[in-house]
TrEMBL record:
Cofactor list: FAD
A single GO molecular function term of this UniProt record: FAD binding
Entry GO terms, CC: cytosol
Matches recorded under CDD domains: MTHFR
UniProt-recorded name of the protein: Methylenetetrahydrofolate reductase
Catalytic activity: (6S)-5-methyl-5,6,7,8-tetrahydrofolate + NAD(+) = (6R)-5,10-methylene-5,6,7,8-tetrahydrofolate + NADH + H(+)
Pfam families per the UniProt record, alphabetical: MTHFR (PF02219)
GO BP terms in the entry: methionine biosynthetic process; tetrahydrofolate interconversion
Protein's pathway: Amino-acid biosynthesis; L-methionine biosynthesis via de novo pathway; One-carbon metabolism; tetrahydrofolate interconversion
UniProt-listed Enzyme Commission number(s): 1.5.1.54
Enzyme class per UniProt: oxidoreductase
């Protein structure tokens, strides 16, 4: 199986899916149902996010290991520096390696409970994602990805700084990047081109088919990803009709996805919210 960065350089757009760790048995069943349905379109990889607490982190490690073990899928495990000493981070990477996971998305993470709060590192931990890239690199033969922010990271002064940070992450050993969810294709393309001028680092856009208006408003606020006025307008016009919101959400994601692929994006990383239907509708509409 080709590595993730090799797949991202393929002629064919590389499709990938993101899940979050289930919080109980019922949501675990839902995750596996979505995963099995999405497995059929043969994604380049699937990723599982990493939460801030011990129990959710254990679940990420377990689910990612199960994906490596029981499916034909290539897992990408998210990992953050939040609340962890270097020793603990080494242990988690060791667990991933032991369960056959060789791809890690190295992130800083956000302070628990307050995403926009001020960052404080663990006293024996790491300060930036770049440091985690270096740590993981030193621990074995891992393929390492990092986060990118087309709308500029909320704590970052400007796009120049973000580009500089990505260059540093690439120099530390990252070989691909995935962006925060994109609602403005131009912002993605701007960042992609700025990075391409400096380093050979494929940057895959994150794409989220909106299925609920309040949910996307909350996420946009939390992540510091503004929703363009045209997007808000289209969703607001149908906000009292759940079925119509979903349809408009799929339509918007399809339009943005089509434009980014036409402009040479290496693929699309779908934020699935552990559901398959909307994602599969966009996938089909794009003729992938
Ligand atoms: P960093 O690269 O460390 O950047 C954080 C801030 O520090 C930025 O403002 C940056 O400009 C600045 N900075 C970085 N390096 C330096 C430096 N050397 N000197 C000065 N300033 C610097 N969060 C989770 O908790 N779990 C997840 O699973 C998760 N998955 C994600 C997946 C994707 C694709 C994306 C885009 C984000 C994800 N996040 C996740 C959110 C992410 O952890 C936060 O957005 C976090 O605030 C930034 O993480 P980072 O890895 O980009 O950090």
């Amino acid at each position: 199986v080709a590595s993730i960065p090799a797949r991202l350089r393929d002629e064919r757009p590389s499709i990938s899916f993101e899940f979050f760790p289930p919080k109980d048995d019922a949501s675990e069943a839902q995750l596996w149902d979505a995963l099995r349905r999405l497995e059929r379109v043969r994604p380049a990889f699937v990723s599982v996010t990493y939460g801030a607490g011990g129990t959710t982190q254990d679940r990420t490690v377990r689910v990612t290991g199960r994906i490596a073990d029981e499916t034909s899928l290539t897992p990408l495990a998210h990992l953050t520096c939040v609340g962890a000493s270097v020793r603990q981070l080494r242990q988690v990477v060791g667990h991933y390696a032991a369960s056959g996971v060789r791809n890690i998305l190295a992130l800083r993470g956000d302070p628990p409970g307050n995403v926009r709060g001020e960052w404080t590192a663990h006293p024996e931990g790491l300060d930036h994602a770049e440091d985690l890239v270096r740590l993981v690199r030193g621990l074995g033969d891992f393929t390492i990805g990092v986060a990118a922010f087309p709308d500029v990271h909320p704590d970052s002064p400007d796009l120049d700084h973000d580009v500089e940070v990505l260059v540093r992450k690439a120099d530390a050993g990252a070989t691909f990047a995935i962006t925060q969810m994109v609602f403005d294709a131009d912002s993605y393309l701007r960042l992609r081109d700025r990075v391409a001028a400096r380093r050979d680092l494929p940057v895959t856009p994150g794409l989220m088919p909106v299925t609920s208006f309040p949910q996307i408003q909350r996420m946009s606020e939390l992540m510091g990803t503004p929703l363009p006025p045209q997007v808000v307008e289209r969703l607001e016009a149908v906000k009292d009709d759940k079925v119509a919101v979903r349809a408009v959400g799929v339509e918007i994601a399809t339009e943005i996805g089509r434009r980014m692929l036409a402009e040479g994006a290496p693929g699309l990383h779908f934020i699935t919210m552990n559901r398959s239907t909307a994602t599969l509708e966009v996938h089909e509409a794009l003729g992938l």
